[in-house]
């Protein structure tokens, strides 16, 4: 679906751009992804729109067939990358599941700020980003996905989410497409 509009109270949600994850092998170089996210974050902050920085520290309980990474994680693993230029007004959410809404207070924080739409970016496209988008959609938020501001460890997971899942959850566009719509909501 083509990106059509941004609501006057839209938040940027950045998923798992943290030191321990961006150092893993990824399908696309991480530097341009971080650059696009930083551009979006700066633009949202300049318009006094909420910026949510999400990190992951652990995993949901339960058995899986796929081996989980060892715990405890190395020192600094959950630290957000400094390029995000975290600001005092940013909302910081630590999750222990794939999505940023499950088992956190993210939804209530966004509702308290009158947010009706989220723009989602980050890592990994097929897990953290997709789960966050699904949860946002199911919670009644309008969802936009910044497809050049995300990547995954697996090309096929990244491509599948963008091609088959995201159009069912919201609108997709590049960070430039999103930036082009931001002036329409300036002064929020």
TrEMBL record:
It comes from the Bacteria. InterPro entries: Isochorismatase-like_dom, Isochorismatase-like_hydrls, Isochorismatase-like_sf. Keywords: Hydrolase. SUPFAM superfamilies: Isochorismatase-like hydrolases. GO terms for molecular function: hydrolase activity. Pfam families: Isochorismatase (PF00857). Residues 10-177 form the Isochorismatase-like domain. This is Hydrolase. It comes from Acetobacter aceti.
